[in-house]
Amino acid sequence: MVKNAVKTVLLHTGALLYGNQDSKVIYYHDIHDNTAYTSMSTPIKLFLKHLETIQNMNYTVVQEITNRKNEIEITFDDGFRGLYENFLLLIDRKIHVKLFLVTDFIDKKNYLTKGEIEEMLGSGYLSIGSHSVSHQNLDLHDRKRLIYELEASKKKLEDLFDRQISSLCFPRGRFSDLVIEESEKTGYSKLYSCLPGSYFSPYRKNLIPRSLAQHALPSDFSAILNGGDQIYFKRYLKMHYRNGDLA
Ligand SMILES: [Zn+2]
Known about the structure:
By secondary structure, this protein is an alpha/beta fold. The chain has helices at 2-18, 44-56, 82-85, 87-92, 114-123, 143-161, 177-186, 218-225, 233-240, and strands spanning 24-28, 31-32, 42-43, 60-61, 71-78, 97-101, 126-130, 167-169, 190-192, 207-208, 211-212. It has nine helices and eleven strands. It comes from Hydrogenimonas cancrithermarum.
């Protein structure tokens, strides 16, 4: 409780400090009604509250951000099944989401099947990107294994779903200069991080900031939309980036 209160105060202080209406990417792991497939899943009621807040704060959910202000891209990581079970709620509201898939997890227990992903893609409200082959920290691999994780996942998704894959999301948000270099060489032009910030203020070219939204209470969520979580930037950078400073 105390911890939550401190977090709320920090987020709202951040919103005052950094407060902006910049376009941003937010991320979740799953949504659920009765059955949660992961402790990272967001109850559907809370998720719908978030959508309401997005609308009330004059943001629009888009497939790809193209405007500096007022746009939100919603992303999901890992490929849990709850998204499929609740997908009609998104279609009804014309909400587009981007899903980052771990290719080894497809068709496994608690994860989406190939058929379910195809069905969602067919609705026009889903796009997909790679989240590696095995979900191990990319910054810990040697170059050869790193290249395998990047290339094999891209190729598998392209073969399975017959489309170009150009977005990558780092497992556990972990990356390094080598990860960035090899990802770009592999053909990824958008690298989704777990560092908070505005879409058009990347800390490095192609490196896209994202804000964690999955358990945010509605009032904290509005502070996040205003950029309040940038107050955690240094802490997140230390947790996720191997080479020190991005400046
Ligand atoms: Zn993940």
